[in-house]
Specification:
Jelly Rolls; EreA/ChaN-like  fold; eight-stranded antiparallel beta sheet; 17 helices; globular; disordered N terminus
């Protein structure tokens, strides 16, 4: 929403998701919305300061003694700024800033994984200064994939930031205020909802949810966090039920080459399933719930003619893909190994550069020497692994590129099967979203390429979850849902589990119109954060939403004790 231009010296307005005035803080006292994006330099201190402010009660302070850069960042909606002129401004105060400066910055990430535009206001403030206004302007291209903006301190000293603002084509950007449903609207919600007294739904309960899946060929099951036990248990039950509706492909947010070994196991191969699960290299999935599902799929396949397959669709890890391509070449064109090895060594662990792009071209060229033959499954698999090598390079530099790879790989899996094959996707709520969240997501890309794409979000109301944080992989508290959040509204139904079909609201059902307003929803992922809620339009993001009242932490294999809360490291299981 764009509103009239306002002077930055005027009284503050409430910023719900960008928190441009730093007045909104988390229960832990951190600046709401500024803790979940981007890395933080451990040589700097980041904090909300209640003793110093240009306006209101709080400002954001960055202080340090190093000669590096300490930066805090957040994201801006791509659809609002694409193709527009942006002016980003704010107030800065400094104390004894040496060998550097305090600044505002704005960066635009393109779809190829590179920052094609970056602007930093380098002349803002250094030394010791009182509050002064600083600004940076940029023309955002229409092809933008991701927008980051933030505040930073280069060098030693302290800098305070306050009353940030953004203008789009000369008009001040004002965010929509989140909506708080009335008691009448909550009662109407009850009339449309499926309610249960447990998250461990039985066959009759699951059958009652069949309308949620009508018309679906790709049903994506999301999750508000990667470490909530009840959501995992419910998703396992949902998948088992969906197999009775003809779904035969299980695909998860995990690396494709590593998951292929699990697919061999569930379809009759040999191996230790627990070791194969750990081999995915995602601690998030290395849990008893996923192991039990793998064993269930294998047992199912031994008793049924119609087989269920287990696939990964992620592209973050290239090592196994490199080995797979190399093994193929060693059997078919050993003379090309030297060129391949040189190319794969060049790209290892690196972002897109002219050198890595040339190496990727070499890998592609080696495989183009083979005639196109869709009946040659080994060649098809080798070419897909080469594609994953390329995807991994771009995914390191761009989250938008990773979303594209998730969508592309999911469709590639379906292309290997008969037309009409049905797939269940297991991923985070943000990934399965039908609409872009800052940049295009897997779900938004699939929804434009498949008429049968259905996104089912899963969230929880209270409790705790497992994540990577200051204590390593451990249990962290869930921030209580407040008024204005989806979880608070669903919690008013007083049931342990609530499911609702959001499509009628999206089509304009008058009695559910309030669901199409901006509401907070929990979004955690694999990393612990005090910033656990983000505003969204749930009717656009999901086709259905399932809420579980109580959340408890998952217990990944390989951790000592209940969850080794006193650990300072992430354990032996890599974080991805």
């Amino acid at each position: 929403m764009l509103a009239a231009i306002a002077s930055p010296s005027q009284a503050k307005e409430e910023s719900r998701s960008l928190n441009l005035d730093f007045e909104r803080v988390t229960p832990a006292g951190e600046a709401w919305g500024w803790g979940r994006w981007g890395p933080r330099n451990s040589n700097f201190r980041f904090e909300v300061d209640s003793s110093t402010a240009f306006s209101g009660k709080r400002s954001f302070r960055i202080s340090g003694t190093s000669h590096g850069v300490g930066s805090a960042e957040t994201v801006f909606p791509v659809n609002v700024a694409a193709g527009r002129h942006v002016r980003y401004y704010g107030r800065i105060k400094t104390a004894i800033v040496k060998e550097g400066f305090a600044a505002l910055w704005w960066r635009v990430l393109d779809h190829d994984g590179t920052y094609n535009l970056s602007r930093t206001a380098t002349e803002c403030a250094s030394g010791t200064t009182e509050w002064r206004e600083c600004s940076v302007a940029i023309d955002v291209p229409k092809t933008v994939a991701d927008i980051r903006f933030g505040i930073s301190l280069k060098g030693s000293g302290s800098a305070w930031f306050d009353l940030l603002g953004i203008e789009i084509d000369g008009v001040k950007y004002v965010e929509p205020t989140l909506f708080d449903p009335s008691e009448m609207e909550i009662r109407t919600l009850m009339e449309h909802a499926f309610t249960f007294d447990t998250h461990l739904l039985d066959n009759d309960d699951l059958a009652a949810l069949n309308p949620l899946f009508e018309g679906g060929q790709i049903v994506a099951l999301g999750e508000a966090s990667h470490g909530t036990l009840e959501l995992f248990e419910l998703k396992v039950r949902l998948f088992k039920h969906l197999t009775t509706l003809g779904f035969t492909v299980f695909a998860i947010e995990a690396s494709m080459p590593e998951a292929a070994k699990l697919n061999e196991y569930v379809t009759g191969g040999h191996g230790d399933p627990k070791s194969l699960l750990a081999g995915l290299k995602f601690w998030t999935w290395n849990t008893p719930e996923l192991l039990a599902l793998i064993e269930w799929i294998r047992a199912y396949n031994q008793s049924k003619d119609r087989k269920i397959e287990f696939w990964g669709i992620d592209c973050q890890i290239a090592e196994t893909a490199i080995r797979n391509v190399r093994n193929f070449l060693s059997r078919t064109k050993p003379q090309s190994l030297v060129r391949f090895d040189e190319a794969s060594e060049t790209i290892s662990g690196r972002n897109p550069t002219s050198e890595t792009l040339e190496a990727l071209h070499d890998i592609d060229e080696v495989l183009t020497l083979f005639p196109s033959d869709t009946s040659n499954s080994r060649l098809t698999w080798a070419k897909q692994n080469a594609r994953i090598i390329r995807q991994a390079v771009y995914a390191r530099a761009s989250m938008a590129s990773r979303e594209e790879c998730l969508a592309d790989n999911a469709l590639w899996v379906l292309e290997q099967h008969e037309p009409g094959t049905k797939m269940v996707l297991w991923a985070h709520n943000d990934h399965v979203s039908r609409v872009p969240i800052t940049y295009p997501r897997m779900g938004s890309l699939l929804s434009t390429r498949s008429d049968g794409y259905l996104a089912v979000g899963l969230t929880f109301g209270t409790g705790s979850y497992t994540a990577v944080g200051s204590r390593g992989i451990a249990t962290y508290a869930a921030v209580p849902a407040e008024r204005g959040s989806v979880e608070w509204a669903l919690g008013q139904l007083k049931s342990k589990t609530v499911a609702i079909d959001l499509r009628p609201a999206r089509r304009g059902a008058a009695d559910l119109a309030w669901l199409s307003r901006e509401l907070d929803i929990r979004s955690v992922g694999a990393r612990a954060t005090a910033d656990q809620f983000v505003p969204t339009n749930v009717t656009r993001q999901f086709d259905a939403l399932i809420y579980v009242r109580d959340g408890h932490p998952t217990k990944p294999f390989g951790l000592e004790g209940p969850l080794a809360n006193d650990r300072d490291d992430a354990g032996a299981i890599p974080y991805q």
